[in-house]
Amino acid sequence: MERTILAGIDGSSPSRSALTWTMRRAAATDAGVLLVHVVDDEWGMIGTLALEEIHRSARELVETETEFARSLEPTVPVTSEVLRGDPMVELASASARCELVVVGTHKTGFLHGRAFGSRSLQLAASAQAPVAIIPESSVRNRRGIVAGVDDSTAGWAAVRFAAAEAERTGQDLTLVRSWRLPQLRLDPDDRTLQHEKLVHASVEQMMAEAVSLAKEHCVTVSVKSRTMRRTPAEALIEASTSARLLVIGSSRRHGLAQRALGPVSHDVLLNLAGPTLVVHGDQDADDAEREEARDEGARNLRVDVR
User: Fold this and answer.
1) What pTM did the predictor assign?
2) Does pLDDT of 147 surpass 80?
3) d(CA 270, CA 124)
């Protein structure tokens, strides 16, 4: 299969920013680009005559965006498609044919800021390839690759992807892990202090493993680790404010939850600080058991220290 990057387009300014990012990446990685515009008819409510006019406008839009894309990188093969239906569902389905999906957003901010839309969250959760969300603001003058670290299949996939990206682009890599216990008044004999030490030791061990994994891919660039006593989303947003790319992992869920992101990925994407890429990983039984154990441990700690 030829390497292809899918770019969702709608003619907007954010879409143009994402398309520019896509073309530059395609040129650097010897990939082709597939432009996809989806005529939004999720409920099948568009009449026949109106649909013909919409499709005519859609084809004109695709032709314009294709011309723009080729003007940016003339050597990159560009193809295009016009689809009909729910845009995020159609893009998720088309993602099976591509190595990466790219969409733009005009919303950026920090925690408690503006959201860029639940549809993009749905795409990030349900796409069969990694998804890059590119903000409208300029991506120039950004430096470094940042990756979130957690003990899941998706978390380790994010480290590997970020390490390969750092090596490819010549950017330093920073691995970020957050941890935080409830705010308590501790004394040296308090068992919650001992618990804190154990948690910290576990975090340091995980970071050492993550750095070791990253260095298998990073030969010419430095790898740094950073632990922050913040909530995971706050830590990742703060660390990626000026980064060239933030890479986060999101465990692929099944059943009714397959279109839902995990809470950390959800909060990061609702408060986008810069170009962000979501790498997927299947949530196997071990991952689910670890998540349940962590949740149960947190509940027990809150109960025991009252």
Assistant:
1) 0.82
2) yes
3) 12
